[in-house]
Amino acid sequence: MHKRVIFTVLSLLLLSAFIFFTTAQTGKINYNVNSIDEKYLEEIRLQLNLDCLKDSQCLEGYQCVKRNCVRNEEANSCESISLAPVSTPLFIGQPLNSYRQAFTETNLPTLLADGTIAILENGNITEYNYAQVLFSGNAKLRSENGQAVIKVIESIEGYAYKYRLYFSRDINFSNKETRGQTLKILGKEYVIGSDSTNSDLYLISNERQIKLEDSRRVMVGQREVIGTTALMIKGETGNVAIIEILFNKGGVERSSISSGSSYSDPAFNSSVLSFHSYSDRAFLTLGGIC
Prior knowledge:
290 residues
């Protein structure tokens, strides 16, 4: 009887240890946010003579776009641009980036609007301006069973398109003055999580929670997003100069995109590559989700 009790107790202890060990190894990601002092940001806004640095500094029905408060109906991210001009169309066998490689706020003014993070330290303001760029990918147009498709399975370097966020100066996401501030990415505002570092960036919005870990797949909530890769590219200071995300990398998620279909970014759910049609030439666009 005593042996049975001892055995049961030992079994429970071993089970508890196993659960603890497993949780420690594969435990859920915590998305923590320390709210930044609104008076602190308001002081910075006034000193820089700006309309806004984040959406909450605008009146209801407005949002912050390029440091200006703009009516929600005017801040439309539902915009797109063709991957090739009419005069030089894309044909079977060509990569998507044959003619137009990069798109900026000049092409997509709301989706890729630039922004600013500003930090006040010792009475001095340091501005970290940032610019967003979308790049058409190196995936190729192929013919498959008589149908035009985009193939991204030729190598692990293949991708449908990529996103980059460039900072005007290297930014330290480990700095407590940076955490709690906001980044507007692909038309949506995200708060920088309080556990962020220069290798792990936590982004929180009302819609989703995202973790960008250097050289790893993007995490949305507790889910690893297959077909994405995040890079935190450091500058000479060791702080972050560029954030890069490859979409549909290596073709491990939806390796073929056929004519008449599209591929929406599974991380931010804000951008989309649309393969509208193929008759004698391909018509493809890159832009915001409507």
